Amino acid sequence: MPIPQAMALCHDIGYTEMQLPNLLDHDTTAEAIQQSASWLPLLARECHPDARLFLCSLFAPVCLDRVIYPCRSLCEAVRASCAPVMACYGYPWPAILHCGRFPTGHGLCVAAVSNGSRPSRPPVKVRLSRRNGSSSGPSDCDLDSRLEVLKAGPLSPGELAPTLRRWLQLDATCVHNLLRGRHAGTYVLCGENWDVSLADALLLPTNSNTLH
């Protein structure tokens, strides 16, 4: 059957015919469309270049004479990049997408198109504070003007500060969740894919004597 126009997740995926039931046991197009729509916000975060390919291989599997599952390596790559984004917003990686259920690649399966590589960013020591002493809202965090670059990278300290402030605005909810249960203070921020989201970063509490 044709991939429905209403299934925005899989528009222009590279093929036009899908099969039902799909690989998530959705029996009707209405169910597949409804369930697939819940993944659109994750795609908007651009957590992995092959996230849409992986999801569509499950929601709208290509119509062939045999079932083609996503490769386990594709699932693992997407999970590694996207699970932290989901966790930052309070959603665990679903059990139904457990990568162990997919083939290891020795047979026919949907493989990654991109290499999934992203430039690493150096760890930076930052100080986060609450605006006006407030802790009630996700946008109440601010960044101290003093940054300590712990390892040199492509961005200068002068470029890092506005980039970090931009993240605080774009990912306010994520920052709020990262700081949940913690006090304002000094943190080490490190990770990959910093040009996309703070959700791919690791925020570690520290103090002025911890790192030099």
Automatic annotation (TrEMBL):
Pfam families: Fz
Residue pairs linked by disulfide bridges in the UniProt entry: 10-56, 75-99
Keyword Signal part of the UniProt annotation: yes
InterPro entries: Frizzled/SFRP, Frizzled_dom, Frizzled_dom_sf
Subcellular localization, as worded in the UniProt entry: Secreted
Domain FZ: 1-112
GO biological process: canonical Wnt signaling pathway; cell differentiation; non-canonical Wnt signaling pathway
GO function terms (MF aspect): Wnt-protein binding
GO cellular component, one term: extracellular space
Domain of life: Eukaryota
Keyword entries, A-Z: Developmental protein, Differentiation, Disulfide bond, Secreted, Signal, Wnt signaling pathway
Main location class: secreted
Cell membrane in keyword set: no
Region of interest (Disordered), ranges: 117-141
Annotated Gene3D superfamilies: Frizzled cysteine-rich domain
Record-stated family: Belongs to the secreted frizzled-related protein (sFRP) family.
PANTHER family in UniProt: FRIZZLED, SECRETED FRIZZLED-RELATED PROTEIN 5
Protein name as catalogued: Secreted frizzled-related protein 5
Species name: Camelus dromedarius (Dromedary)
